[in-house]
Design goal:
Layout (H helix, E strand, L loop, with lengths): L1 H17 L10 H14 L4 H9 L3 H16 L4 E9 L7 H6 L4 E4 L4 H15 L15 E14 L5 E5 L11 E9 H4 L1 E6 L2 E9 L5 E7 L5 H10 L11 E6 L24 E7 L1 E8 L28 E14 L3 E14 L19 E7 L4 E8 L8
Parallel strand pairs: 1-2
Antiparallel strand pairs: 1-3, 3-13, 4-5, 5-10, 6-7, 6-9, 7-8, 11-12, 12-13, 14-15
Helix pairs in contact: 1-2, 1-4, 1-8, 2-3, 2-4
């Protein structure tokens, strides 16, 4: 089940990455995947089918897979995950669905949107250890439910980098003092590979962390599409079955070729040790991003789920609900010493316009002229007070 969950989450990451075309960014399919799995479990068709396609598993298996995946992640000292569910007091929640969420903390949304937002922002700051400060969606007066996940990763390199200013190339050619990172290892320890995909070759360099975390750097040809490079990197990191993301093969570096892959060069140097070595040269970076998931609703299986004309989640509540907002904030820093990243994904819901089906008779009583009233003690039938209304109150300005 864990392998199926990893395949589904990586598939989402690869498809999402493939849509990126320019500019710095960070995204986490793994952060969004458990939320989509929880929604798939509780949705009805056609939203259920769309969400199942997005997570890559049958809807009735997705939530169990998400629970198992998060359980495995929490065993790593480098990873912290959290899930939160907040609902308005007016929304009765299906207890069986809530109980199956992966260790979710269930809270109540404050009726005041500003106070509710402050409480959610505090949760984000706590669960990401201060890496992020705000929930990526805004609480509105109409918000009835909010489901969020937090994911943080921290690792230190097994072999730290040396640092010095370095000049850039290509789009960075005018920048003469980038924060350069350098290290040299035996070739067998370098972790260099070349992935041959339908979109061209991608050089992969794996940087190993001390606590079971690797960071894979990926470089394509100068004219390669950024999304294609990211998708190729994602497709090589674990089990994946995406027909649109075919990796022909992954090769070790061919030292007989002077340029065995993008960014790779082979040259002879003078030295006393005849064993080949490998040098990794990169730059330190920090990237931040905000993603509105509903702008790519089809990718995340949310096209029907975000239609507010009817409710789509009978497995969550008897109140007709639709997805009001879905967003992710993420940040990552790569330095000489290590890597740290955090992502918070959130889905908020509101009441759908419950469309009537069929017809029914309605009896209406209109008290639109002077009328009487009586207050009665139910158990005994005692009339406590009674009266007659001739001067009702005005509607307040």
């Amino acid at each position: 089940m864990v392998q199926a969950a990893v395949s589904g989450a990586n598939g989402l990451t690869a498809r999402w990455a493939r849509t990126w075309d320019s500019g710095g960014t960070i995204l986490s399919g793994a952060g969004a995947w458990p939320l989509l799995s929880a929604l798939a479990e509780a949705a009805d068709d056609p939203a259920r089918g769309e969400l199942a396609e997005a997570v890559g598993l049958p809807a009735d298996e997705a939530l169990d897979a998400a629970r198992e995946l998060l359980r495995i992640l929490e065993q790593s000292p480098a990873v912290h995950t959290a899930l939160g569910l907040w609902t308005a007091l007016s929304v009765p929640i299906n207890a069986q669905w809530a109980a199956r969420l992966p260790s979710a903390a269930h809270g109540v949304l404050d009726p005041d949107p500003a106070r509710a937002q402050a409480a959610l922002d505090a949760w984000v700051e706590k669960e990401t250890e201060g890496l992020l400060h705000h929930m990526p969606v805004q609480v509105q007066p109409s918000t009835l439910l909010l489901l969020a996940s937090a994911l943080t990763v921290r690792t230190q390199w097994e072999r730290p980098f040396d640092t010095s200013p370095t000049a850039g190339r290509g789009p960075w050619a005018e920048r003469r003092a980038l924060a350069g990172l350098f290290r040299t290892t035996a070739l067998s320890e370098a972790g260099f590979r070349v992935a041959m995909s339908d979109d061209g070759p991608v050089t992969l360099a794996t940087v190993r962390g001390r606590n079971g975390i690797d960071v894979v750097l990926a470089l394509g040809e100068p004219d390669a599409h950024p999304g294609a490079v990211l998708a190729t990197a994602a497709a090589t990191c674990g089990p994946l079955s995406e027909p649109g993301l075919r990796i022909e093969r992954i090769e070790s570096v061919d030292l007989a070729r002077p340029h065995p892959g993008p960014g790779l060069t082979v040259a002879e140097i003078h030295g006393f040790n005849p064993e080949p070595t490998a040098s990794l040269q990169t730059v330190a970076f920090t990237v931040d991003a905000h993603h509105d998931l509903l702008k790519q609703a089809g990718l995340f299986g949310l096209r029907t789920a975000s239609d507010g004309s009817v409710g789509h989640f009978p497995g969550i509540s008897g109140v007709p609900l639709y997805v009001q907002e879905a967003a992710q904030d993420a940040t990552a820093s790569f330095s000489a010493e290590g890597f740290v990243a955090a992502a918070v994904t959130a889905v908020s819901m509101s009441r759908a316009a419950a469309m009537p089906s069929g017809t029914a008779l309605r009896l209406t009583a209109s008290f639109d002229r002077p009328f009487g009233f009586a207050a009665v003690h139910r158990d005994t039938g005692l009339v406590l007070v009674c009266g007659w209304v001739t001067d009702p109150d005005d509607y307040p300005r």
